[in-house]
Design goal:
single chain; alpha+beta; Rieske Iron-sulfur Protein; eight-stranded antiparallel β-sheet; 9 helices
Length: about 400
């Protein structure tokens, strides 16, 4: 369990919370799907770490990212006209280029050009990778090195990203991603449908082996199989929220990235990136090419109706009663915990090893930041992000799997 003070330190990201300030300063943040931004199309409202922004694709294709409030009178720039490589506020016509420069103030009767030079506009660096536009929200002129994961630069179709906004704290999403022990229980109906008995409910107690890495940690979850062999999945936790998870298909050269980005203290944006080096990603219930900005589906009902759980489906053999998608089961559990879990009341066991390691990494990093130090796990120049690779395999014994770490 955690102390209430440490739980607050880990979960709070809004305002001047140290965790939010650390993330803004030291990491690029996934902000939205690139396909949502059309040149000269409508700006998109984006909320991250308790603050409101607007993203748009300018006439020439460049993505701009501003504070949502117009610096003049605070009207939403999501209402602005997107034209001539700039946003023009519809309230008074003030115009701001995609580079973040004030270029027109038509309400200024004299010396407009000079006046424009003194109008501040908060704008932020943007980078597009993997079908996502990423933003750096820190202070200063030099962003940190981008985390160039191995899915970056893959051709269209070989990497697919989907996301869903969930009404729960971000840490609940991160911990679920790294909790390998729940797979065979919570997701057993989905796993049985694809014939993966290696993660079945009959094998609910994987043994964890954790190794610290410059980016966080990598762990192997080892499940003993009936024939004496071991099914081993090596996953990684990369600060501040990335779960690098082995693919379900052992023949695939690729993997999954899951990450829970804080919208504010009580909402997260849950992302899933699926990538494959050898062939286009297969469209399954895990990813959607029709509703990528709201996938997997949220549970269909309110808390008063047990989040829409289908008890008839349970009677007919579905374990959880959430038949929409595998991810919907995760969301139901995350949401059922309440907006922010009080971890001082937990009772943890050996199966929670990876969850505990996540907390230790985050607490160490935020405490370093509070001491005005760059967190050791944010030394991006020294971290080979492109070589962080998940693996799943069956071994006759336990000797060879250690090579995977």
């Amino acid at each position: 369990m955690l102390s209430r003070e440490d739980n607050e330190l880990l979960t709070r990201v809004s305002g001047d919370a140290p965790m939010g300030r650390m993330i803004r300063q030291h990491w690029w943040i996934p902000a939205g799907l690139s396909a949502q931004l059309e040149a000269d199309g409508k700006p998109r409202r984006v909320r991250l770490l308790g603050r409101n922004y607007v993203a748009f694709r300018a006439t020439g294709g460049k993505v701009g990212f501003f504070d949502e409030a117009c610096p003049h009178r605070g009207a939403s720039m999501a209402l602005a006209r997107n034209e001539d490589n700039a946003l023009r506020c519809i309230y008074h016509g003030w115009k701001f280029s995609v580079e973040g420069v004030t270029v027109a103030v038509p309400t200024q009767p004299a010396n407009e050009a000079e006046y424009c030079k003194h109008v501040p506009l908060e704008h932020y660096p943007v980078r597009e990778e993997g079908g996502i536009y990423w933003v750096w929200l820190g202070e200063g002129d030099t962003p940190p090195k981008f985390q160039n994961f191995e899915f970056c630069g893959l051709p269209p179709g070989h990497v697919v990203a989907v996301c869903q906004t969930v009404p729960a704290n971000w840490l609940q999403g991160v911990e679920t991603t790294m909790d390998s022990a729940h797979l065979g229980m919570l997701h057993q109906s989905w796993l049985s449908s694809v014939g993966d008995i290696r993660l079945s409910s009959a094998n609910m107690a994987p043994v964890y082996h954790v190794e610290q890495k410059p980016y966080g940690f990598r762990y192997a979850s080892v499940r003993a199989l009936a024939d004496g062999s071991s099914y081993v999945r090596t996953n990684s936790f990369v600060l501040p929220w990335y779960g690098v998870v082995a693919p379900g298909r052992s023949q695939s050269r690729g993997g999954n990235f899951f990450f829970a980005v804080p919208v504010d203290d009580e909402h997260l944006c849950y992302w899933n990136i699926v990538y494959d080096f050898d062939q286009p990603v297969e469209i399954t219930q895990q990813v959607s090419d029709t509703r990528p900005e709201s996938w997997p589906p949220l549970p269909p009902g309110p808390p008063e109706d047990n989040w829409g759980q289908d008890r008839e489906a349970m009677k007919n053999g579905h374990f959880t009663g959430f038949t929409q998608a595998l991810g919907t089961e995760d969301f139901a559990v995350i949401m059922s915990m309440g907006p922010i879990v009080d971890r001082s009341k937990e009772y943890l066991g050996a199966g929670d090893g990876a969850v505990l390691a996540v907390r230790r990494c985050l607490l160490a990093a935020v405490r370093e930041f509070m001491q005005n130090r760059t967190p050791a796990l944010a030394n991006h120049e020294a971290i080979p992000y492109e070589r962080i690779r998940p693996v799943a395999a069956v071994f006759d014994g336990e000797a060879r799997w250690r090579e995977m770490l």
